[in-house]
Structure formats: structure tokens, C-alpha cells
């Protein structure tokens, strides 16, 4: 039984109570219509409580994911800054090396350009990995938001 079915059942019971005249058919009948069976009311309350618990759980998951995304974005920015620093150091080192070589243009330049700094390669790999993680987390957050909207609509 969905939350909509529970709500429509409750609305119908309210209409029945409003339409019932206690003096027309007797107090006992009116009392029975006004107070549904305890098991039905208990079941409806249990469904409502379960839905509220699920919404709360999803909200907490969303907060956790948002915090994790922020942390990953911060880490990503730090790694990008580190990558930029390493690229600048590499560029400076190449310029210094070029100045030192002077007339020896062909000697050693090819090998130096082909071999990348291992820290630079590691930083690029880490940035790629973090971008993938950020994309996955964004997709998960989007899915959770959709689920939360669906749950809110069902209430």
C-alpha cells in the first residue's frame, strides 16, 4: 500500500465522518465510522513512519555525499595547484637546461622532453581519478534527489 493510497483512504474516511449525522443512524454507527479499526490505523501510521524514516535516511545520505563532494573538490583544487607548480618547475628546469647547453642543441634535449616528471604523471593521474569520482558522486546525488522528490510527492 503506497502513501497515496493511505492518504486517499484517510480522506475518504474524513468525508464519511463529515457526511454522517450522529443523530440519524445512531451514535454507535457514527462512532465506528469516526474511529477506524485499530489495526488499519496502526498499519497506516506504520507506513507513514516508515516513509518519514526513509526520507530522513535519504536526507542524511545526501548531506554526507555533499560533504564528501566538497572535500573531493577541495582535494582536486589542491592537486591542480600542485600540478601547476610542478609544470612551472619543469618549464623553469627546461629553460635553465636550454641556457646551459648553449651550442649543444641536439645533445640530450630529445631524451629530456620524452621523459616526464614522475610526480607530474602521478598528479595528472590523480586529477583524472578525482574527476571520475566527482562525476560518479554527482550522479549519485542526482539519483538521490530524484528519489527524495518521489518520496515527497508520495506523501
Topology readout:
Blueprint: H1 3-19, H2 22-25, H3 27-34, H4 38-101, H5 109-114, H6 118-154
Helix pairs in contact: 4-6
Q: Which percent band covers the strand fraction?
A: under 5%
Care to count the β-strands? 0
Number of helices: 6
Shape: rod-shaped
User: What radius of gyration results from the CA coordinates?
Assistant: 33 Å
Largest sheet: none
Report the span from N to C terminus: 12 Å
Please, what is the average pLDDT? Answer: 79
**Any idea how many domains?**
1
Characterize the structure shown.
This protein is an all-alpha fold and 155 residues long. It has one domain (37-154). 88% of the residues lie in helices and 0% in strands. It contains six helices and no strands. α4 (38-101) runs antiparallel to α6 (118-154). The chain is rod-shaped and about 105 Å long.
Short synopsis of the structure:
The chain has helices at residues 3-19, 22-25, 27-34, 38-101, 109-114, 118-154. With 155 residues, it is mostly helical.
Defining traits:
mainly alpha, 6 helices, 88% helix, single chain
Amino acid at each position: 500500500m503506497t502513501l497515496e493510497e493511505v492518504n486517499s483512504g484517510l480522506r475518504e474516511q474524513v468525508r464519511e465522518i463529515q457526511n454522517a449525522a450522529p443523530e440519524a443512524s445512531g451514535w454507535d454507527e457514527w462512532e465506528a465510522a469516526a474511529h477506524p479499526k485499530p489495526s488499519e490505523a496502526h498499519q497506516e501510521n506504520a507506513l507513514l513512519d516508515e516513509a518519514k524514516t526513509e526520507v530522513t535516511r535519504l536526507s542524511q545520505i545526501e548531506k554526507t555525499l555533499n560533504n564528501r563532494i566538497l572535500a573531493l573538490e577541495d582535494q582536486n583544487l589542491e592537486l591542480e595547484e600542485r600540478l601547476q607548480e610542478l609544470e612551472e618547475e619543469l618549464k623553469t628546469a627546461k629553460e635553465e637546461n636550454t641556457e646551459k647547453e648553449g651550442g649543444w642543441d641536439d645533445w640530450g634535449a630529445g631524451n629530456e622532453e620524452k621523459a616526464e616528471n614522475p610526480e607530474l604523471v602521478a598528479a595528472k593521474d590523480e586529477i583524472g581519478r578525482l574527476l571520475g569520482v566527482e562525476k560518479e558522486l554527482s550522479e549519485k546525488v542526482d539519483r538521490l534527489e530524484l528519489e527524495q522528490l518521489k518520496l515527497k510527492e508520495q506523501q
